[in-house]
Amino acid sequence: MGTLASLTAHELAARYRRGEAVPTEAVTEYLARIDALDPQVRAFLTVTREDALRRAAEADARFRSGAPRGPLDGVPIALKDVLCTRGIRSTCGSKILERFVPPYDATVVARLFAAGAILLGKLNMDEFAMGSSTEHSAFFTTHNPWDLARVPGGSSGGAAAAVAADMAALTLGTDTGGSIRQPAAFSGVLGLKPTYGRVSRYGLIAFASSLDQVGPFAKDVEDAALMLQAIAGADPMDSTSIDVPVPDYRAGLAEGIEGLRLGVPAEYFIDGMDPEVERAVRTAIATLEGLGARTEPVSLPHTEYGLAAYYVIAPAEASSNLARYDGVKYGLRAGGARDLIDMYSKTRAAGFGTEVKRRVMLGTYVLSAGYYDAYYGQAQKMRTPGVAFKMGEKEDPLQMYLNDIFTIPVNLAGLPGVSIPGGFTQTGLPIGLQLIGRAFDEALLLRAAHAYQQVTTWHTRKPPLEPAPR
Amino acid sequence: MTRISLEDVEHVARLARLDLSAAEKERMRKELDGILSYIDKLRAIDTSGVEPTAHAVPVTNVMRDDTECPSLPQEDMLANAPDRHGELFRVPKIIEE
């Protein structure tokens, strides 16, 4: 295997600028890696080979003429298939959109193309981003590059695995209830969920509109800063994107974290936590203290209720958003219907997988007459910060929901969160470290993550992948 | 305790426009029952006097100037139609004969 694909995006960009490589070489190498490794990893739903080579040739010309567009020019990227790409099918991991070819680019996609980034393809995901493993993809399950017998996490599992396996320099995923941070942790890469409203959702196929947010997967913090720089900022096409100034994310990275106060939530260290994970997180906290940060124990008493509130709000919004899949304007249509309503019902039955049906049913139930106040209204009140309430009896945490318990509160509160590689288990599986920041202060979050990566090497490890023998 | 009946499932499936098989209905009944039992912990919390939060960050009405701008071409918007008739989307009959 060559070497360009193993570089970070900023290292690759530096080679382009020095004239030591051109985008076509990097794109060719990445495509060869996808050919060699993706039959095992299965991160890609669509590979856009011809498009990528055409865009690469255009980028080559820009570098030759001394007029590159910026730090992402010529950088090979890939996108979770929830993002609309003009002329390139966008399935959202669902049979109902299997042949859907969007007539427009999502704003984030348009911005990346304008920055010169080169699309390698579209990435696997749980159907409509509902799931934590890619096992709910209507097409196939993506494998974890660190252990092919395991899942890469989800729902942005393809986006995490592609970066981990050096099959793209950078990718975009989406995070509604942990769908960037959890697969980043499982796959040993960086995953950033920006503040709600920081990045446009126009052209992001909606799951839960008050929670969905687009964010990068990257090999290191500097790369994440470059990607966020390209996609952040208000968009007239998304009136929930917020007009807050976008700082220069890369400029502030090296400022360090001397004197920074870090809260360590007591509720995030629960009974039943994997001891190796706890040890890694405690070690990381000590590392951050060694860099000058002060840590304080804090309490986030809503944590226990976050998951329950999420499982009302997200399905409720999903049931409404997914009402658009009716077999009329685009997507699958089932045959043999008696009338229009029958066509809707048969189409949705044929086009949606089990998990999507379950959430549509749950969402429809909690919004239906007589239950709205008890469930949806109550869950919205639980989102409100600072609610005083009595702690109920401590229930046994559900093992399978553990990850969600730690990622979902960030979505409900709209805050930015980042998962960075924070160690490995004895068996060689990555451990993620989550940092949560203030609203619209991704810069501080990235600065802290960068300081950590300056004194650790977890993020530089590569999974032991070899092309399968023919 | 069972809080969801098969009739509830059928009612909700009708609202959601989902044609479920008998096996799916029974499975859905059990699963929704389990999930709702978990979610029920919310109902025990006193939220009187708390304003609901629809969005975590302040979202207000956004007005734009009332100026013309190009829309997506009609042909592009019809290109994904499962069934079309000229410039129209064609659907099964709605009105009884």
Short description:
Chain A has 470 residues and is an alpha/beta fold. Chain A has helices at 9-17, 23-41, 49-64, 107-114, 157-164, 181-187, 221-231, 275-290, 303-321, 340-351, 354-367, 373-383, 402-413, 442-455, and strands at 44-47, 76-80, 118-123, 170-174, 190-193, 214-218, 261-265, 294-298, 417-424, 430-436. The chains are: A alpha/beta (470), B mainly alpha (97).
Overview of this protein structure:
The complex is a heterodimer of chains A (470) and B (97). Chain A is an alpha/beta fold. Chain A has helices at residues 9-17, 23-41, 49-64, 107-114, 157-164, 181-187, 221-231, 275-290, 303-321, 340-351, 354-367, 373-383, 402-413, 442-455; strands at 44-47, 76-80, 118-123, 170-174, 190-193, 214-218, 261-265, 294-298, 417-424, 430-436. In chain A, the strands form 2 sheets. In chain A, strands 1-3-2-4-6-5-9-10 form an 8-stranded mixed sheet, sandwiched between helices. A two-stranded parallel ribbon of chain A has the order 7-8. In chain A, helix 4 links the parallel strand 2 (76-80) and strand 3. Chain A starts with 8 loop residues before the first helix and ends in a 15-residue tail after the last helix. Chain B has 97 residues and is mainly alpha-helical. Chain B has a domain at 6-44: Histone, subunit A (Orthogonal Bundle). The model of chain B has no long low-confidence stretch (mean pLDDT 89).
